[in-house]
Design the sequence.
């Protein structure tokens, strides 16, 4: 199965794709799921708004929309990520763009493996898991530099 990266109406090239793929696969496997096909689709605010209206009847911008196609224990999905919104959020939260993008990417996968963020308690658990996986990614990047 595969993790693929696509662009719609944005000029964006995700760095360190091999490490990101390994990291996302680790997340899926850690929660006892199998990796199916995961498509990250990087897009503009206009595109994510169009998708949000067309498929979810939500008339607002967001950083990520996840369409799960999970069957039994195999995780598959399309994850739309608005690059401009991630950039805005990175400034708002005083984080690097890469850090915020990675948080959004793992956030979508955590939803796929069963995390929710509707209640305050769920939000705390989601944030804790995001932080854990961001630390794992930092370690993967550090180890890659040593090789």
Sequence:
């Amino acid at each position: 199965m595969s993790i693929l990266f696509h662009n719609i109406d944005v000029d964006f090239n995700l760095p360190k794709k091999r490490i990101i793929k390994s990291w996302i696969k680790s997340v899926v496997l850690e929660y006892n799921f199998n990796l199916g096909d995961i498509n990250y689709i990087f897009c503009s605010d206009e595109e994510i708004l169009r998708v949000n209206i067309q498929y979810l009847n939500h008339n607002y911008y967001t950083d990520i929309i996840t369409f799960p196609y999970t069957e039994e224990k195999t995780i598959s999905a399309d994850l739309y990520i608005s690059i401009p919104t991630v950039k805005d959020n990175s400034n708002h939260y005083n984080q690097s763009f890469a850090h915020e993008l990675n948080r959004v990417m793992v956030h979508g996968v955590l939803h796929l493996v069963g995390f929710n963020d509707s209640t305050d308690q769920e939000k705390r658990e989601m944030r804790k898991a995001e932080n854990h996986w961001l630390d794992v990614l930092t370690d993967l990047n550090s180890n890659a530099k040593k090789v």
About this structure: The chain has one domain: 2-146. The helical segments are 17-30, 45-56, 83-92, 97-112, 120-146. The chain has five helices and four strands. The radius of gyration is 15 Å.
